[in-house]
Every structure is written in C-alpha cells, then in structure tokens.
Amino acid sequence: MSSKLYHGAAWYPELWEEEVLAQDIELMKEAGINVVRIGEFAWSRMEPNEGQIDLSFFVDIISRLHANGIEVVMCTPTPTPPIWFTHGHPERMYVNEQGQVMGHGSRQHACTNNPVFREKAAIITEHIARAVGRLPGVIGWQIDNEFKAHVAECMCSTCLGQWHQWLEQRYGTIGKLNEAWGAYIWSEDYRSFDQVPQPGAAPFLHNSSLRTMYQQFSFEKIAEFSDEQAAIIRRYSDAPITHNSSVAFHVDNERLFRELDFASFDTYATFDLVPNYLINNDLWRNFKRGRDYWIMETSPSHAASLESYAKPHPNGFLRAEAVAAYALGAEAFCYWLWRQQRAGCEQPHGSVLSAWGKPTVGYRNVLEVEEARKAIEATITSTRPLQAEVAMTYSDRAKAFLKTEPHRSLNHRGLVTSFYERILNTGLHRDVVPEGTELDGYKLLFTPFLPFVSEAYTKRALELVENGGVWVVGPLSGGRTEEHKIHTDAGLGALDRLAGVETLYTFPMDDTGSEGTAFGVSARLSLWSSVFEPREAEVVGKIENGLTPGAAFITEKRHGRGKIVMLGSLPSGDEGELLLHRLILHYADEAGVTVRSDVTRGTIVAPRRGDAGDVWVVVNMDGLGGSVTLPREGVDAISGEAVAQGRLEVGRYEYRIIRFDN
C-alpha cells in the first residue's frame, strides 16, 4: 500500500525566469501540489550543442523543490531532439505512410529506431540518471512522453532494414512467411526478406498480414526503446520508472509496461464522457498488478491547442475525477500543466496558473481536489481496491487488426469503451484486463472485439469456465488467425468446436433488417456478425427477418462447471441497450458475482478492503446526483458518523466514503 497520495502537475522551469520559479514553488505549496514532473521536453536546455551537456540547472531545481517539500518525477527529454540533431539529417527523421519526411519542430519528429537517435538518447539519459538519480526528492522516472501520440508506424529506411530483420527472426525462411501471409494472392509472394515492403503508399490496399504485422513490429520497437532507457536509469537510480501512455496511441501498452515499474496514463476526457475516463482507471489498475497507477496528465479545466479546444469542466467535476481515481487505485492525480505556456502550440491549454501568474478558471477546483485528497488519504492508503469478479479483456493488438480492417471505419477505442459502459451501468465492479492477464479470481469474462483469440488466451479462459465461470465471446471476436487471415477449418476456428456451434456465415448485419430476440427483448443487429447453428450448444438469441431468419446470434454451452457464451452480433438502439443489460446481469447471476451494487447510472461505487474491513467510495460523476443501497450499517470514514443500512443519496459531484467494520 502507498503511504501517501500525490497531487501533482507538469512544470517546465527551463522556460521561465528566476522570479517566476520562486513564485511557482510558493504557489504550489499553497495549492497542495506535492509532486511535479520535469524535464520531458528540455533536451536543448540540457545539451544546447552536441556533447555539451550541463544538468546543473535541473540538479538545483530538484534540490529547491525537495527543500520545499515537493517531490519530483524526472523525465527523459527524448521526444524533442534539438536542432543540432535534426538539421540537415532527413535520414534521422520520421517518415509517414505517404512517404512525407518530418522536419524539425513540434515533437516526435525523429525516428526512434534510427541508430544515431538511439545513441544520442542513451547518452543524454545516462547523463541525467547519473546527475539526479540519487538526489533526495526524486521519487520516480518517466521515460520520454506519450510514445506514438502524434505519429504511427515509421516508414524510413532504418525501419525498413529493421523490419526485414524482425521478419527473419519471426519466420525463419521466406517460404514460411509467404505461407503464413497467403502472399501468393495477387502475386504478392517474395523471394527474400529484403523484398518485403513497408505498408506505405499503394494503389489500393496492402495485404492484411503485411499491415498488421508491421504494426506489431512498430509496437515491439518502441517498447525496446523504452526498455533501453529504463536499463540505463536503473544503473544510477532505484526510483521506479513509468511512461505516460494512452489507449489512443500507436503502442501495445501491455508490452510497453512489461519492463517498467508502474503504469501511468494521460486523459483528457470531458465531463460528458465519464466512461472514457473510468475505463482508463479500470485498465491501468491491471497493467502492473499490486502497484498503484498514476494519472500523469489531466486538465484542471480544459484541453486545447492552437487549432482546437475541449469543453471546460463544470465546477465540482475535477474533485469527482480525483476521488474516483484514488478510490479505483491511483496513487497520483496530476495536471498538465502548472503554469500556462506563453509560447508554442499549446498556449490555450488549461492550467492551474495563467501565464501571468494568476489563478485560472480551474484553480478553485484544484483546491477542492487537495481538500479531498487530505480528507480521504488515511482511508485510501490503508485499503486496496477489492478484487473484481467481472473482467473485460482489452488488447492493443486487437486495435492493430481493426486498423487494418476497419470495415465501416470502426473505431476500436469507441467500440471497447461503449461495451465497457454497458458493464459499468449494471453496477458490477469490474476490471479491464490486458490480453495476457491471468484470470484467477474472475467469474465472468467478456471478450469483445478480439479478432484473433490466441491459444494461450483460450486456455486461460477455459480454466475460468471449468471452475464455474462464464465466458462471453464476441462480438467481432475470433474470426481471424494470428497472421490476420481467415480460418479455413471453421468460421471462428477453434472457437466453433469449443462453443459447440457451426458458424454458418459472417457478414455485415447493418441495414439488413435483421433483428435478434433474447432475454425477452427484440433489437436490431449491427456490425460484422457471426451467425450460428448449434451443434452441442443451446440457442439463447435467435434472428428474425433479414438474411438469416431462424439462425442464432447468441448461444451457450456447458463446459466443466461453467458456460461458454457466443455473442455473434451487437444489438443496437435502445432495445439493444436493454438486451445487453439483461445479458450482462443474467450471466453475472449465473456466475455468482457478488461484488456489485445497485448504484444509479452516472454514479460509481469503488469497493476497497483493508485490515479493518471493507470500504465503499461512492462518487457522483455525471453531476446529476445518484444513490446506492448500503448492504448494512456503516460509518462515514470522514465524519465518523454512523450511516444506516439502505439508500444513500449523493449530490452533484459529491462523494461519500462508507466503512463497513469487520
């Protein structure tokens, strides 16, 4: 368990004069900021000319912060290489899918696979780690900043050569690659690895295997870069290392965090997109199990750049965000940024202080967060999030498959978040788990939007089922092989046999007039769908009208002490929401899920457990107020007053912490 909760902000002292720095430190203490993140874009300040590295400014800043009770997460500055690195060297720069070479400026303009970049990044990282790694006050490290946020797969000549090496390591012979990819179609087969192209500009569409595998190559290479920096830092510092990532970026987060010490994410979800915020908390809690995660960036009011801006938060929402995060497993809640930028492309972005040093529209809310942090800290640090019994699998590899094959512009992030929201709205306590997570402790598992279901994942899911759990597979799951081809033994490969069905057809169900009936509800069916004929399974949902009347879209089959449920299509509209709501609760009941509540939509319950008993953190997130039924009498952990069993009301963005003693 963490001994404290952090309330922090990103700070760029290299951009300001001495009098501003002194003022900032004093104002941070007044606002309750107890940790800052520094250094992530400061490479040119650290090394203005190649080989002339001076870190004395940052050593001094860290010492001053520590003397004032403010701790530091130190960053490596590798997203912004200086002009001496980039000028006159197009071979070092990132190249996009259209073959456009990035120029100097902005960030992420260099190719992170370029050997000169790797060399210079390693040198500056080592200098920083050696200079500040043992300084008191440095409590953590952040590698780089938001890998692949603005760029995707690089198409430069360096990446081409490394791509060929990666392919040879993966397949061994070019014949095996041709076979694995089905490359003989359209005469796309190769005679040597150095003939395999990158999926750049093409007259039509690239082979699916080529495109999906290139994304996985890119995922692995950016993770290797992260691993390389982490290994350097560990030679000089014992402080834990992270990276600030997101589901929106072109990375495999599960692979990225594998060699890091704790997980952190950036989020700018607006107040009317609460599930977009909560899903990150429920996912990042599971990237490094047993270690609290950090929210490394969120806005105290609104996100913005020169070209766009988001809706500002209503008063009270920021506190609800923070309390929900701490309750769901966050150790830190941090802002981007402390003082508004006076130059650059993010001048309009929300901040704690304005560029002229005065409170912003979000400042009052920051003070509310600090007040709440102090009020809840003792309870949060003496408990841990309760093990959920319901899990939904998340996969960035699946995101790669849907980028290759988006059908009608399907958006992986939107699909996953929408499905998550349906689970959230049932009041079930839930985890969102990476694809490789062990499934011990879960009773109900959802596997939506996973085109390739691996043998290893299937084995873990079947163990859950054999022990009495329920595994709900689909929609859009299982229809592709690891190399992004279609199965030839059955529509969904091994899933057909395991689920006791024959997949009759897979086709786009939208606009076909197809309706599905299950759990007493009829709804339109949508998305690319699988239609089943039961072999050893029972029909739970049947299709009416459309192209396949009488066929099944939901089946279930006993396996061990549990069930495998196939969800072949996505019900849509209001009726579809009701059907899915009933499906989720039905199988939660069958699986014996007990970690749940009847909390109203827009309000959450975050259950925690400590030596003294269980705690429910109840937070209204939608600004409309809500309620939940307490299962027994409890005690308000802040006021110490008794709270009766039964309905507990919470107001607009209000939170309550109820302790149930052993």
Main β sheet profile: 10 strands, mixed
Ends: how far apart?
Answer: 19 Å
Strand content: 15-25%
From the 3D coordinates, which CATH architecture of the largest domain would you assign?
Answer: Alpha-Beta Barrel
Q: How many structural units, i.e. domains?
A: 3
Shape: globular
Helix proportion range: 25-40%
Task: Record the SSE blueprint.
Layout: E1 6-10, H1 18-31, E2 35-38, H2 43-46, H3 56-67, E3 71-75, H4 83-86, H5 115-132, E4 138-142, H6 157-171, H7 174-181, H8 208-234, E5 241-242, E6 244-245, H9 253-258, E7 264-266, H10 274-284, E8 293-297, H11 317-328, E9 330-335, H12 363-381, E10 383-385, E11 390-394, H13 396-404, H14 412-424, E12 430-434, E13 444-447, H15 455-466, E14 470-473, H16 494-499, E15 501-508, E16 515-518, E17 521-526, E18 528-534, E19 538-544, E20 552-559, E21 562-567, E22 570-572, H17 573-591, E23 603-610, E24 613-620, E25 626-630, E26 634-636, E27 642-643, E28 646-650, E29 655-661
Helix pairs in contact: 5-8, 8-13, 10-11, 11-12
What are the key terms here?
Immunoglobulin-like; ten-stranded mixed beta sheet; 3 domains; alpha/beta; Rossmann fold; 662 residues; TIM Barrel; 29 strands
Describe the structure.
With 662 residues, this protein is of the alpha/beta class. The protein folds into three domains: 6-151 and 240-382, Glycosidases (TIM Barrel); 390-591, Class I glutamine amidotransferase (GATase) domain (Rossmann fold); 603-661, Immunoglobulin-like, CATH 2.60.40. The protein is globular and about 75 Å long.
